[in-house]
Write a structure and sequence with these properties.
This protein is of the alpha/beta class. It is built from 10 helices and 17 strands. About 30% of the residues lie in helices and about 20% in strands.
Length: about 400
């Protein structure tokens, strides 16, 4: 069955979703894998697995356009090349399962990217053989995912609160007359706590009970944070929800106040919660108290951007005018209710002339850095993916974890 593919490369995990061209408009998750790319001395690479015998790179999407490359053993490779290799691998995995190539691929990226960084990624994707691709800002992808299920009238606005393991952002998007979305405002969090920081705060609470010799793993804290009920047991210690909320309240208030400033005078129809960090009930409760509109989230908010990217890829192929408006004004649940969970751009094709040069930089007096010679082409051409794991292994292990 003909399909399109959406890929969301997060700092910690990469998610792929497919959308059928002759089926329902909803996208479905096809793959979730940690955003690790490892080079071995044999010249092969693996994705999503860590082996001490190899050289591992992670977090490369956020460094696309950075002049300083990653060092993988004897090789140096820019962040955009590593990102393109990961996307190429993801496409190959999905093709192996679907039995055919996708009709189109959409890749999400941070909303703050300008023409230079988008151009760098486009060029790297073309270098590894990925040509039919559209880049979609993350908040626009989230809005497209929402618009599949809820009617969004032209000129109305949506706010997007994104909280992942290592990134926070607040955005406002507007529905255009052509039934796409445009970015109105966007703020990237810099000094804000994110999902990984909340894991650390929970770990600190547990170690405070265990004493100076107490040990608790970050993975255990992450799993407990996502599963919080009235209380949770971590490392043999019971922590109540109220205790945890009291510990993280200043950080949550900081996130919410930044979001409110980003929204400004705009009155959005709804706030969409995106990213695995939004699984914490206190996020939805605090936002509901701060804004005068619905606050909506999916059961797995870390998958919203990938699914929205797939919907955006479908729109590229069939056109927005061919898609009927949803009958329901909303099928989503307000976060104040018991069943929190569900809540996406002008989608343009790349113009090479737009990406001719990087933006000007202010003059800085620094000593030149002697970098080792680049051998990126050798990496891209010589690396061969190692064996694949089964779909059930990947899905069961990573599906429910923070995705960004």
């Amino acid at each position: 069955m003909a399909y399109v593919l959406g890929v969301d490369v997060g700092t910690t995990r990469t998610t792929a979703a497919v959308c059928r061209l002759d089926g329902a408009r909803d996208a479905e998750i096809a793959l979730v894998v940690p955003s690790f790319l490892q080079l071995t001395d044999a010249g092969t690479f693996s994705v999503g697995e860590f082996d001490v015998a190899g050289w591992t790179a992670t977090g490369f999407l956020r460094r696309v356009g950075d002049a300083v490359p990653f060092s993988l053993g004897p090789e140096t490779c820019p962040a955009e090349e590593l990102t393109a290799l990961l996307i190429m691998w993801v496409i190959g995995e999905v093709v192996a399962r679907e039995g055919e190539q996708p009709r189109h691929v959409a890749v999400s990226h941070p909303a703050g990217w300008g023409p230079y960084r988008r151009g760098q990624l486009y060029g790297a994707l073309r270098a590894v053989g990925v040509h039919d691709v559209t880049l979609v800002p993350e908040p626009l992808a989230a809005a497209e995912n929402h618009a599949v299920r809820a009617r969004v009238v032209p000129d109305s606005s949506l706010a997007v609160f994104s909280l992942g393991s290592h990134a926070f952002s607040a955005s406002v998007v507007r529905r255009s007359q052509s039934r796409t979305f445009e970015l109105v405002n966007h703020v990237e969090g810099i000094d804000h706590h994110t999902g990984g920081d909340f894991d650390d705060l929970l770990g600190a609470l547990v170690r405070g009970r265990l004493g100076k010799d107490g040990v608790v793993s970050a993975a255990e804290c992450e799993a407990a944070k996502r599963a919080f009920g009235p209380s949770v047991v971590v490392g043999g210690v019971e922590i109540t929800r109220d205790e945890f909320v009291e510990e993280i309240r200043p950080s949550v208030d900081h996130l919410v106040s930044t979001f409110v400033r980003a929204v400004g005078t705009v009155q959005p129809d709804a706030v969409l919660l995106v990213g695995g960090g939004c699984r914490m009930q206190v996020i939805g409760d605090s936002l509901s108290a701060a804004v005068d509109c619905r606050v909506l989230a999916e059961a797995a908010p870390e998958h919203s951007v990938a699914k929205g990217a797939a919907v955006a890829a479908r729109l590229v192929v069939v056109g927005p005018e061919a898609e009927p408006e949803p009958f329901e004004t909303s099928v989503l649940v307000h976060t104040r209710e018991a069943s929190l969970r569900f809540p996406v751009g002008e989608i343009t094709r790349p113009d090479d002339e737009e990406f001719s040069a990087p933006p000007p930089r202010p003059p800085v007096d620094v000593s030149p850095l002697e970098l080792p010679p680049r051998r990126v082409k050798r990496v891209a051409s010589a690396l061969n993916p190692v064996g694949r794991r089964s779909r059930s292994e990947k899905s069961d292990k990573y599906d429910d974890e923070d995705g960004r």
